[in-house]
Amino acid sequence: xxxxxxxxxxxxxxxxxxxxxxxxxxxxxxxxxxxxxxxxxxxxxxxxxxxxxxxxxxxxxxxxxxxxxxxxxxxxxxxxxxxxxxxxxxxxxxxxxxxxxxxxxxxxxxxxxxxxxxxxxxxxxxxxxxxxxxxxxxxxxxxxxxxxxxxxxxxxxxxxxxxxxxxxxxxxxxxxxxxxxxxxxxxxxxxxxxxxxxxxxxxxxxxxxxxxxxxxxxxxxxxxxxxxxxxxxxxxxxxxxxxxxxxxxxxxxxxxxxxxxxxxxxxxxxxxxxxxxxxxxxxxxxxxxxxxxxxxxxxxxxxxxxxxxxxxxxxxxxxxxxxxxxxxxx
Length: 330
Hints:
Layout: E1 2-6, E2 16-19, E3 29-38, H1 41-48, E4 59-60, E5 65-72, E6 84-87, E7 102-106, E8 110-112, H2 119-139, E9 147-150, H3 156-167, E10 171-176, H4 179-187, E11 192-195, H5 201-208, E12 213-218, H6 225-231, E13 232-240, H7 252-257, E14 261-264, H8 272-288, E15 295-300, H9 304-315, E16 325-329
Parallel strand pairs: 9-10, 9-12, 10-11, 12-13, 13-14, 15-16
Antiparallel strand pairs: 1-2, 1-4, 3-5, 3-7, 3-16, 5-6, 6-8
Helix pairs in contact: 2-3, 2-8
């Protein structure tokens, strides 16, 4: 089979597109014919060595996938050949990745693909959707009528958070780097989209939420806690899911006096049961049209190295040339 893999960690150019052995599924695994995959920042961290990991070499990159089951192991209970599925959590914790024509995946990390969703949509939703659900539902316990702020409403995670928060009945404030992206944020459901290049973000937040923001979802790698804590409502919750190397100043006094809480998490540490609960809601919202994954571009899998470079330029280099997910097709 064709696959995108590395022989050693390093720059995107280390990714080789070539032949690799077709995986043989274990008794509890499904062999999936991959029809679409998506690129995530964590993929680039693992590939580059920024996140140290013990990798099976050659290592197939990628976390997300959508496709069709072609073989189900004897211990698989919920899927059979011909079923459309999507999933994430591959390419992590010693597991091979998804950037290939076939992938052997444990049943516990797979979910049925809604009939109304394309494979590209399912793949683009996978990691960012599960991340958004874990943060909003499990950790922040976002309630209808509350106000949520998220940086970057057209990004992969930001667009998922925006739409899920609206599906949960919250009001959403978000930011964008230009008027066109701000308009997209409003199309996704944002009640207020602030152009951070031309407007005073803090002033706009205070105007919209004079009593403070109930949930602050931080996507920036270097959070400004001084500003954020001042904008939180009493008992406000802050979600952290980025910035591994960040060591910012933290205003302890104002934070605890308000009774606020801070929740940090990485999606791949969540249990299969926690993620399955999120997948059920994601599927329901996809079917209802309340969740529309933001796809910036679709490329052939053979361009995996270029896709990693583009993702890296935007995640670390803050190039601003992406508005959504990069999807690849084998």
